[in-house]
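A reminder from the course coordinator: this example appears on the midterm review sheet, so study it carefully.

Given structure:
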């Protein structure tokens, strides 16, 4: 094996000792490993709650406003986590912040299985939101660095692989939670949280392996140092608030709506699984490539319009066909929103501001996600029922589509001659932190 001098320069290994292969890990596999973060952060912690909500509401005697406030607590934690993600990344390093926040999210899921107290569950939802926001934001920045070349479509495709983790998490929760509810009835909500907590801990393993192969940003370009140029994304910030409020109201209450329309537990599970599968496949096969080619606010506008169309079938018609059509259209599009803003941030901000930019955009997203379920829940408790609350999604998504049109792309500000990290060439045996040899 090779040895290092005190200066960090690698010396050739003796001729009698065979050199270990240092074949680069394929970029796709690195991005896929990082996608374990969104599996936990959104697939489990955020969206699986919709599957558990009817049983929890029945067993714990909640109103729709109370049920919505649980997602508001989660979103408030998400706001704080997103706002501080760049600080955690600087303080402990991007990889450590990404991985340990995943562990915190997994522990919050596990703990939710052991209490029915409203206040304690709200605290756990808050803690889970805080931890998984750090996971998602820092993971997005890591995914943006997997491909360090100048080909925008390639980078967008790899970011889309990372975002596909959300759909994978939705599919997994769509299998696990209904199984728990079928086995234990309305009391199965606790088993649902427990099983997702165990799966979340397992998901840390591929995330650890993948994070070792992401190029470092060192010295003056370390993660989160500066927020230069963020004002050019002002329309995207406004769009993300409205989009977050609109899509999450649907995701919070659609299962309850289908349940009220007479759909069985496994019927709603099928809906959820189709939604997750559509999300993963469309994010991988369609949106990554398409967003890489669209400019300015075109991608956010398109995303809002298609997501809006996806909400309509369950509001206009009842039955399995309407639910599946909604799942395919909505599921195939909603995670294109985070993909679009991540790609815009990468194009329009200098590399040292990527983590901060993505973090602040996620704060905007989280503000919408905090307000949306609470207002939708209050509307659902009124005479119009859940459908009335979900029409709020349609209105917010329509407004967001118009707002996004104001976004103009002023050209990339990524100074590659100063900031471009080393291509992905680390071997499995390479140290996780190579900054000492790159300075």
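Designed residues:
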């Amino acid at each position: 094996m090779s040895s290092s001098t005190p200066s960090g320069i690698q010396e050739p290994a003796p001729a009698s000792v065979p050199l270990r292969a240092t074949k680069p890990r394929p970029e796709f596999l690195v991005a896929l490993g990082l996608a374990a973060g969104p599996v936990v952060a959104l697939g489990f912690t955020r969206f699986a709650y919709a599957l558990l909500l009817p049983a929890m509401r029945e067993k714990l005697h909640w109103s729709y406003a109370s049920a919505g406030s649980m997602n508001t607590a989660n979103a408030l934690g998400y706001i704080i986590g997103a706002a501080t993600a760049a600080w955690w990344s600087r303080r402990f390093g991007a990889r450590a912040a990404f991985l340990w926040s995943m562990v915190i999210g997994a522990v919050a899921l596990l703990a939710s299985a052991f209490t029915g107290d409203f206040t304690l569950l709200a605290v756990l939802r808050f803690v889970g939101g805080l931890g998984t926001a750090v996971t998602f934001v820092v993971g997005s920045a890591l995914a943006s660095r997997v491909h360090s070349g100048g080909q925008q479509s390639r980078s967008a495709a790899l970011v889309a692989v990372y975002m596909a983790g959300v759909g994978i998490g939705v599919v997994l929760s769509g299998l696990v939670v209904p199984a728990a509810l079928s086995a234990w009835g309305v009391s199965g909500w606790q088993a649902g949280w427990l099983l997702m907590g165990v799966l979340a801990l397992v998901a840390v393993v591929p995330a650890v392996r993948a994070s070792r192969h992401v190029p470092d940003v060192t010295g003056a370009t370390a993660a989160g140092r500066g927020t230069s140029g963020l004002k050019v994304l002002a329309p995207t910030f406004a769009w993300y608030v409205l989009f977050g409020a609109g899509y999450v109201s649907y995701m919070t209450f659609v299962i309850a709506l289908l349940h009220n329309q007479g759909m069985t537990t496994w019927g709603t599970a099928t809906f959820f699984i189709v939604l997750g599968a559509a999300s993963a496949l469309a994010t991988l096969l369609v949106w990554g490539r398409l967003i890489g080619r669209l400019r300015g606010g075109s991608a956010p506008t398109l995303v809002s319009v298609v997501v809006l169309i996806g909400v309509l079938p369950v509001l206009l018609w009842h039955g399995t066909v309407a639910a599946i059509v909604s799942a395919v259209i909505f599921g195939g599009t909603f995670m294109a929103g985070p993909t679009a803003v991540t790609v815009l941030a990468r194009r329009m901000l200098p590399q040292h501001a990527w983590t901060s930019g993505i973090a602040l955009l996620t704060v905007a997203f989280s503000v919408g996600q905090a307000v949306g379920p609470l207002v939708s829940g209050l509307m659902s408790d009124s005479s119009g029922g859940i459908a009335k609350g979900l029409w709020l999604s349609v209105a917010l998504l329509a407004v967001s589509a118009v707002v996004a049109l104001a976004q103009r792309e002023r050209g990339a500000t990524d100074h590659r001659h100063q900031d471009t990290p080393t291509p992905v060439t680390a071997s499995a045996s390479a140290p996780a932190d190579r900054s000492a040899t790159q300075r």
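The chain has 17 helices and two strands. The first strand starts at residue 3 and ends at 4.
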